[in-house]
């Protein structure tokens, strides 16, 4: 499964850009990036999902993990998700705890 | 009905595919069975499952959204067979599928311990904030809600699941 | 975790000798032996557990697998299990479907 | 109370152990905390868990049967953290333990998604023959029934479980 993730941190905002496909075979790499972002003590986590073509439950688990690691005051947003990806996030009810922007 | 030739999906698994055809041949679907592939029970195989389903969706002229849903269900089901069914033991998963006038279907056979995926379903509790929610049960939930039908049977000790998407335009 | 398993088949009886410790890190090897035994078409499966020092749920799963693969007419027995190993098998209720001999 | 030095358990994980002490130090048990080890979240680590618990049982002068039960629960819990908690993501599990007058305890910390093992418990349905039984839930069941007490808490986003065996002879 093709997946590529990069983390950048600037002015307290951690951004993870995810490209390709997130399922059980690739989610561990996303999970590791979330873990690193959490350790940076960012006040906001943005997940740039414009180039995320597929999202399975293993990727959602990493979002739960992000929500649990980052502390309640940290806002988490998923930006630019395609229609099927944002539908999955909504179906799981994650849009109550994670902002969906431009989706 | 159209049969899918999985030859393109994986050169490495040719031997496995032969074995799959032989073993699947004994249990034809009510409708005609299509050719399929046999993949090892590890997460690297998810890629082969995806390619198989994407090709099936193309041949069945499903919309992008229908193909996405079929692939999502297939990915979740295959993941569970690997992670919860075989758990590191070596084993095979047999995947086949077909296009019929009114539907496109994908079928999985595996020899892991018996498990009806429909019993693993837990709808997410939308009232509980994510920070407190435990994370089990999402995979089966997504798989079951993605497809138009999800059938399971234990046939001669093997788990057999059939996922289908209804075609809107009849071929 | 140390584990060693050997399969031998003679006159329709498959015997798997298990030595060492069976948990999630070693159960896949036991599972593979059970799989091979099932493919031999044996009429009886004997698991020689005299030298099995530890059994966790992952090992029990392989027994369930054996029970499901071998068909109802095949008898499965665990022989010579030590006290804590046989206690675990009984606690899980497996002694209704699998014979415990010399345990 | 006796502290367990886990130095013997693993030379490779020395760096991890330092980090563990530092991270665990913030959450002392009501009783005094003992030193511990930090292990990577993979199945190979089960061996280190076993060695740690066997040594603890020896120091706590538990009977063979008591030590076996503590080890069984620890093995099942660690397995679940690896298989269901981290699922292939890299991560650490922090294990410490101690001997007190009336009990021997082992504690696990992990950073996987929150999960209270006590909610995963399903007692096996003894009425259903094995051939038809689905196989989930045995690990938590064995762990919970093996020990004399099993506590879980979510502390600052980390899963913390404490398993204990009561000592019959007070030290
Ligand atoms: N093939 C399988 N064999 C045995 N158990 C399974 C299988 N698939 C799913 N399960 C069980 O169903 C539960 C729900 O699965 P799922 O919805 O994918 O969520 P998760 O994998 O996150 O727990 C799993 O935790 C597991 O206990
Ligand atoms: N650390 C964990 N994180 C998330 N879910 C877990 C964890 N441990 C156990 N579970 C859930 O509890 C269920 C029961 O676990 P267990 O009794 O070990 O049985 P099994 O692993 O065979 O399913 C698992 O299927 C899983 O859904």
TrEMBL record, chains A, C:
InterPro entries: Anti-sigma_ant (IPR003658), MlaB-like_STAS (IPR058548), STAS_dom (IPR002645), STAS_dom_sf (IPR036513). It holds the Pfam family STAS_2. One of its GO terms (molecular function) is anti-sigma factor antagonist activity. Gene3D superfamilies: STAS domain (3.30.750.24). Residues 3-103 form the STAS domain. Belongs to the anti-sigma-factor antagonist family. This is Anti-sigma factor antagonist. It comes from Streptomyces diastatochromogenes.
